[in-house]
Amino acid sequence: MKKLAGLIILFIFIGEFANAQILDPTLGPRAWKKENVKQREAITLTHIREADVMWSTRIWRELDLRQKLNLPLYFPLDSAIHGKRSFLQILFDEYLSNPNNFGPNGIKLYKSSEYEEVYTFEEIQRIVNRRDSVQKVDEDCNLIDTVAEKLFSDIKPEIVKIRLMEDWFFDKQRSVMDVRILGLGLIFPDYSPENQNDPNCDVSVFSGYTPVEGSYSEIWFFFPEIRPTLAVLECYKRQNDAARLSYDDIFMQRIFSSYIYRQENVYNRKISDYTAGLDALLESERIKNDIFNNEIDLWQY
Predict the structure, then answer these.
(1) What is the mean pLDDT of the chain?
(2) Is the pTM for the entire model greater than 0.85?
(3) Among 103, 139, 233, 260, whose CB has the most other CB atoms within 10 angstroms?
(4) Nearest CA to 250 among 155, 193, 181?
């Protein structure tokens, strides 16, 4: 009887020890299994009646991912670290590199924030995984045709800005100034193959890709369509890694730093079209302050 009791205690101890050693196939070894974020859903937003909107404006803002508050969106630069992917890597894995996404039920990718032209899979691959036929030389100085690649893993560190399109409005039913993010755009730099003269063979051959100054491609998402994906993927938390913070939370709770580069206007122009430098930053701040002041002024009614 004593032996039986001892075996039972031993099995209980082994079971408790095994439960303490948790190996998550995605996140690796941890003290506990992280599964709360995976079960989350994107929070449903309050329905807005047109009759309740007393004032509204549409703005476009730009996020520089190199700013300290935005670093959780930029890193990690590797494909994944302990199961966590950067915001850019998530969009690439789920939509940009997934040919199944371009079916009739897939998430459409647009060429601008006007949401008129849609990218095909081949056009997206030309931007995120570029391949060009180029010429190099062999040991005998004979020109040979080869393929040069500029893959997403090479481009990702250079994608340092994303854009948001938002509607700001005052809802008299709830007596609040509210905002809805409608569009999210990625800014991909454009590259061109560069040729240089080979000093040994005295012929022009491919030497690499160079960014085209002032030229870029935009890929726009309709933000409400990608929220379910962002809601189940956690991001890095500086102060507390146990906090259940997802990428959807970053945008919905507005945990980011940005500046306004355009407000809806009759000329359909950006701030950079009529001012530059410090004046452009001051104009961005003026627009932001106008939104804040409108909320205060409308409380008079």
Answers:
(1) 89
(2) yes
(3) 260
(4) 181
State the pairing for strand pair 259-263/53-64. antiparallel
- The two structure tokens encoding residue 78: 């590797």
Q: Domain ranges for the chain, please list them.
A: 1-33, 34-298
What would the two tokens of residue 6 be? 């001892």
Coil, helix or strand at residue 108: coil
Give residue-wise pLDDT tens across range 193-228: 999 998 888 889 999 999 999 899 999 999 999 999
Model pLDDT for residues 2-58, shown as the tens digit of each residue? 566 655 555 454 454 445 557 676 666 777 777 788 888 999 999 999 999 999 999
Q: How many CA atoms lie within 13 A of 45 on its CB side?
A: 15
Report how many helices (DSSP H) and strands (DSSP E) the chain contains, helices first. 8, 9
CA distance 173 to 46: 11
Report residue 93 as tokens: 């894995």
What is the identity of the amino acid at 101? N
Count of CB atoms situated within 10 Å of the CB of 294: 17
DSSP secondary structure of 143-156:
EEEEEEEE-HHHHG
| Rounded-to-integer distance, Cα 226 and Cα 230, Å | 6
Write down the H helix ranges in the chain.
2-20, 71-74, 87-91, 121-128, 152-155, 223-231, 247-252, 278-298
- CA dist., res. 227 & res. 239, Å (int): 24
Cα–Cα distance list, 193 to 54, 144, 148, 251 (Å): 52, 16, 9, 36
> What is the spatial distance between Cα 160 and Cα 86, in angstroms, rounded to a whole number?
12
Q: Which of 130, 153, 31 is nearest to 80 (CA)?
A: 153
- Whether the CB-CB separation of 176 and 46 falls below 8 Å is answered with no
Q: Which helix (H) or strand (E) holds 263?
A: strand 259-263
